[in-house]
C-alpha cells in the first residue's frame, strides 16, 4: 500500500520540491546525490525501514522524531546517533527516542554495498521520509549529500522545543532554525503520529498550576478519557497516543483534536488557544471561509526545509563507518 501511495504523489512532489531544494538549499546537497556513487542507497534505506516497520510500526514516529531532534541540535548531521557519556543521545529530551537499530541496520548494508559513501545523516533523513510514507503520509524528494558531524553534546539540546513551551517560545526556537510559523504548525502536526509518556501530560489534569488543578484548555468531555489514559497515581512511563484516535497514522485529525480541546501535550494544545497559530490550524482543517492548506503537501515542504538546517557538506564533517561512533 505504501508503494502505491508514494507513486501517486511522487511526481507532483518532485516537481514541487526538487528544483527548489537544489536552489534554495544550495549547500552542497541535492536530490539524487548518490545516483552514481551508490545507486541503491535510497532503496536500501527504504527496504530496511519497511522491514523493521512490518514487525514494529512504532519505529516510524520514533525515526521521524529522531530526525527532528537531530536537526535542531548541531544541524542535520547525525550527531544524535553517537554513543557515549554526555552525548545528545543521553540528554533527557532524547532518552525515549526509538529506532536507532533501524539506522544501524541500514548503515551496515550500505557499507557492504558502497563502503564509506553514504552518511548516517543522510540515512536518517531518508528513513524519516520513508517512515512517513509507511504511516500513510506523503513522500518527497530528499536532498542528500550531508556529512556526519563530529560533535555530540547533551548540553546542546537545551534549545529543543519543549512540551510546556509557549507558542511565542516555540516560534522563537523555530525561527532560529530558519523555520516560520507555518512550518512550526505543519511539523508539529506531522510529529504526532506516535506516542508520549504520561509523565509529560499528567500535570495538566492533576496539578496544572497554583490557581487551577486542571488545564482549562482540556475539553470537559475529554477529561475523563484523558484521566483514564494517564491516572493520577499511574505509571508515568505509560505511553499514550499524541493524536487520539489516529495513532501511527498520518492525517490531519490532530488539528481536529486541538479544535476539540483533545490535545495531549500543553504545547500542542496551545496551537489552538493562541490566536497567532489558530488560523493555521483552521486552514489545515479546511474550515470554510479560510484559504485552505493541504497538510500532506505543506508538511513535506517543511520537512525539506527542516532537513537542510546546518548541513555539513564537502570536506566538512566525515562519513562515519558506524553511525554510533566517530571515526
TrEMBL record:
Q: Where is the Plant heme peroxidase family profile domain?
A: 28-327
* Range of residues in the leader sequence: 1-26
Subcellular location per the Swiss-Prot or TrEMBL entry = Secreted
Entry's cofactor comment: Binds 2 calcium ions per subunit.
One Gene Ontology BP term is: response to oxidative stress
Q: Which residues bind Ca(2+) 1?
A: 70, 73, 75, 77, 79, 88
Q: What is its EC number?
A: 1.11.1.7
Q: Which reaction does it catalyse?
A: 2 a phenolic donor + H2O2 = 2 a phenolic radical donor + 2 H2O
Residues that hold substrate according to the record: 161
| Gene Ontology molecular function terms on file | heme binding; lactoperoxidase activity; metal ion binding
Tree of life domain: Eukaryota
For the ligand (heme b), the binding residues are 191
Gene3D superfamilies, from UniProt? 1.10.520.10, Peroxidase, domain 2 (1.10.420.10)
- InterPro entries named among the record's database cross-references: Haem_peroxidase, Haem_peroxidase_sf, Peroxidase_pln, Peroxidases_AS, Peroxidases_heam-ligand_BS, Secretory_peroxidase
The UniProt entry annotates the active site at 69
- Entry's Pfam families? peroxidase (PF00141)
Cofactor(s) required, per the database record: Ca(2+); heme b
Indicate the family of this protein: Belongs to the peroxidase family. Classical plant (class III) peroxidase subfamily.
* Function summary: Removal of H(2)O(2), oxidation of toxic reductants, biosynthesis and degradation of lignin, suberization, auxin catabolism, response to environmental stresses such as wounding, pathogen attack and oxidative stress.
In Swiss-Prot or TrEMBL terms, this protein is called Peroxidase
- The organism named in the record is Coffea arabica (Arabian coffee)
Amino acid at each position: 500500500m505504501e508503494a502505491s501511495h508514494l507513486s501517486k504523489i511522487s511526481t507532483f512532489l518532485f516537481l514541487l520540491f526538487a528544483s527548489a531544494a537544489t536552489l534554495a538549499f544550495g549547500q552542497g546537497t541535492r536530490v539524487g546525490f548518490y545516483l552514481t556513487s551508490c545507486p541503491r542507497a535510497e532503496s536500501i534505506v527504504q527496504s530496511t525501514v519497511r522491514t523493521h516497520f512490518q514487525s514494529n510500526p512504532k519505529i516510524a514516529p520514533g525515526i521521524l522524531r529522531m530526525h527532528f531532534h537531530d536537526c535542531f541540535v548541531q544541524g542535520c548531521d547525525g550527531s544524535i546517533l553517537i554513543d557515549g557519556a554526555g552525548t545528545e543521545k543521553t540528554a533527557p529530551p532524547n532518552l525515549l527516542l526509538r529506532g536507532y537499530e533501524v539506522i544501524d541496520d541500514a548503515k551496515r548494508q550500505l557499507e557492504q554495498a558502497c563502503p564509506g559513501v553514504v552518511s548516517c545523516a543522510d540515512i536518517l533523513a531518508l528513513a524519516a521520509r520513508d517512515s512517513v510514507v509507511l504511516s500513510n503520509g506523503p513522500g518527497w524528494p530528499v536532498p542528500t549529500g550531508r556529512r556526519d558531524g563530529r560533535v555530540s553534546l547533551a548540553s546542546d539540546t537545551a534549545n529543543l522545543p519543549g512540551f510546556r513551551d509557549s507558542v511565542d517560545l516555540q516560534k522563537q526556537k523555530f525561527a532560529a532554525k530558519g523555520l516560520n510559523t507555518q512550518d512550526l504548525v505543519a511539523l508539529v502536526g506531522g510529529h504526532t503520529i506516535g506516542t508520549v509518556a504520561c509523565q509529560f501530560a499528567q500535570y495538566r489534569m492533576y496539578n496544572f498550576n497554583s490557581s487551577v488543578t486542571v488545564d482549562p484548555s482540556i475539553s470537559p468531555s475529554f477529561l475523563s478519557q484523558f484521566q483514564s489514559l494517564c491516572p493520577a497515581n499511574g505509571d508515568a512511563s505509560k505511553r499514550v497516543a499524541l493524536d487520539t484516535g489516529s495513532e501511527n497514522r498520518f492525517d490531519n485529525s490532530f488539528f481536529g483534536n486541538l479544535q476539540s480541546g483533545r490535545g495531549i501535550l500543553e504545547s500542542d494544545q496551545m496551537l489552538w488557544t493562541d490566536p497567532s497559530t489558530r488560523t493555521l490550524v483552521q486552514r489545515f482543517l479546511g474550515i470554510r471561509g479560510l484559504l485552505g492548506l493541504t497538510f500532506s503537501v505543506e508538511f513535506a515542504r517543511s520537512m525539506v526545509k527542516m532537513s537542510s538546517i546546518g548541513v555539513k557538506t564537502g570536506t566538512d564533517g566525515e562519513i562515519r563507518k558506524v553511525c554510533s561512533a566517530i571515526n
